[in-house]
Amino acid sequence: MRLFHNAVSSNARRVMLAAIHMGTPLDTTEVNLMDPADRRRLEELNPNSKLPVLQDGDFVLWESCAIMQYLADRTYGQTLYPDNVVQRADINRWMFWACQHFSPALGVIVWENIWKGVTGNGGPDPAAIARAAVDVQKFATVLDKQLAGRQWVLGSSLTLADFALAAPLMYTDQAKLPVTGYANLQAWYARVQELDAWKQTQPVW
């Protein structure tokens, strides 16, 4: 299996986190999103022109959380995505919530404070940041409440949900994400950062 990714992509990082933690063998190809030729090749694999993309023989899969689940199903003995249907439903719930609510709200602020300038699209828009901050605070409150009294998102065991939720927080300091006031969230995120998989996927700035 081959993963097309970029180290600075939080969506790609959540897949790499899961693969490394599970010991899933992957070949990797880094895609330079600033290079037109790489962009064209990416669009041949994913019409959305987004990372990551997994190629497994003739099967091509995009969407990071779908890739995470697929890799778990292909990895014998993994514990991040148990076979129990109720446990899987709970993990799925938080993975979908990450993609639908938490990550997009964080992504606006990351775009405004980091990537907008890098890509030559001007400086940060304070109004856009303020609007996104309202959503971040709403969703961070939900996650912080879920983490009360828990080591990981679903209790005492690390799951795919933890990696799906933690990856977009990788820019907390650089993008000034408004999540530092949530004690349970911060304690959980500190635990994630101590994992070998997190340390191995830390981009070199």
Tell me what the structure shows.
There is one protein chain. The chain is of the alpha+beta class and 205 residues long. It has two domains: 2-73, Glutaredoxin (3-Layer(aba) Sandwich); 85-197, Glutathione S-transferase Yfyf (Class Pi), Chain A, domain 2 (Up-down Bundle), CATH 1.20.1050. Helix content is 55%, strand content 8%. It is built from eight helices and four strands; from the N terminus they run βαβαββαααααα. The chain has helices at residues 10-22, 36-45, 64-73, 85-118, 126-147, 160-166, 183-193, 196-200, and strands at residues 2-5, 27-30, 53-56, 59-62. Strands 2-1-3-4 form a four-stranded mixed beta sheet, covered by helices on one side. α1 links the parallel β1 and β2 (27-30). α1 runs parallel beside α3 (64-73), α4 (85-118) runs parallel beside α6 (160-166) and α5 packs across α7 (183-193). The longest helix is centred in the middle third of the chain and has 34 residues, at 85-118. The two termini are 27 Å apart. The relative contact order is 0.15.
**Span of the ends, CA to CA:** 27 Å
- SS elements, strand count: 4
Level-2 CATH architecture of the largest domain:
Up-down Bundle
In spatial order, strands of the major sheet run 2-1-3-4
Subunit organisation of the chains = single chain
Which stretches are poorly predicted, pLDDT < 50 over at least 5 residues? none
* SS content category: alpha+beta
Q: Major sheet, described briefly?
A: 4 strands, mixed
Within the CATH hierarchy, at the fold level, what is the topology of the largest domain? Glutathione S-transferase Yfyf (Class Pi), Chain A, domain 2
